[in-house]
Amino acid sequence: MTNAVETRGLRRTYALDRRAKTGRSEVVALHQLDLEVAEGSVHGLLGPNGAGKTTLCKILATVLLPTEGEVRVFGRDVRTQTRKVRRDIGIVFGGERGLYTRLTARQNLHYWCALYGLRRPAVRARTEQLLERVGLVDRADEKVEGFSRGMKQRLHLARGLAGDPRLLLLDEPTTGMDPVSARDFRSMVDELRREGKTILLTTHDMDEAETVCDVVTLIDGGRVLAAGDPRSIGALVSRHERVEFDFVGPVAETVRDLLDLPGVVGCTSVSPGRHRVETADDDATKAALSLLVDRGATALTTSRPRLEEVYLKLIGDRGMAVR
Ligand SMILES: Nc1ncnc2c1ncn2[C@@H]1O[C@H](COP(=O)(O)OP(=O)(O)OP(=O)(O)O)[C@@H](O)[C@H]1O
Predict the structure, then answer these.
(1) What is the pLDDT of residues 163-210, one digit of tens each?
(2) Using CA atoms, how far apart are residues 81 and 47, in angstroms rounded to an integer?
(3) Which pLDDT does position 323 carry in this prediction?
(4) Per-residue pLDDT for 136 more than 90?
(5) What is d(CA 173, CA 42) in angstroms, rounded to the nearest whole number?
(6) Quick check: CB of 129 below 6 Å from ligand 1?
(7) Which one of 185, 203, 256, 298 is at 20 to 30 Å from 211 when CA atoms are compared?
(8) Count of domains for the chain
(9) Pocket test for ligand 1, best of 49, 60, 200, 225 (most atoms within 8 A of CB)
(10) Which of 19, 54, 56, 91 to mutate to test the pocket of ligand 1 (most atoms within 8 A of CB)?
(11) 204/109 same-domain check
């Protein structure tokens, strides 16, 4: 299967103004970046401010040229096959950018659909279809300036879908949304995935990445630090499974007995009355669970390190949003 996105040795620099007297002549935004986004997947790009996410999206959107390296969208070179690449992509940036706030939602969509070269009846039909899809039919004739952040973002999504793209680039689509709007937006992303669209999503939100992405790539300083399924990426920072439990009363003897079990590699207190055992394999997890049940421990859970922990370990808490 062709990858929706493939970059090899991608480098992008920006020339710096000599008058700024920084002592540097350029800033390296992307550094030998190799990335593959499988067709039909939702792929998250995570990283702090300045990591290079927007630069990458702009290159894929063909508004910025790579300095070096190869970049292909559905197998097509962004430098030499720009027109064809453009036909396959839709871009959704956050905030006010790109919306005509004095026009209504319907007028905005008529305009964008017309820009895609559709004839008048097709423009109308496509506009109605998009309004329906993003749940704005009831508000279609209101001026966009009165829209909430969530409604504006839905209209952005409709705009991104106007040309029926195969790849959607979503740049922090839920930043600043209330939780209900953000959840609705994510279920729209899920629906688009089911229709076979590929989605590349930049986000600072770990929960969002875990909920909607099939694969996440962590980038910092223009380099890929890690990539994988957000639900199993925890194996990068620890191979161990965890068992957490609550214990009322003295716990020392139970901890000693746990540490005597083969394959139990550690036991720590995570908060008052709550403890965490780390185990090296499934047998050790089972033995620890059975001992804990015997000793009257409660609220037992098993887990692996989550994406948030991987991010903290590799990048630190710069640019991270968790709810
Ligand atoms: N036009 C420009 N001129 C000079 N430097 C730039 C320009 N655009 C971006 N940069 C620099 O390139 C690096 C990558 O920036 P980029 O905007 O791609 O990061 P980002 O991951 O999207 O950050 P954010 O989360 O803040 O949007 C940063 O060091 C930034 O300062």
Answers:
(1) 999 999 998 888 878 888 888 888 889 999 999 999 999 988 887 888
(2) 29
(3) 45
(4) yes
(5) 13
(6) no
(7) 298
(8) 2
(9) 49
(10) 54
(11) yes
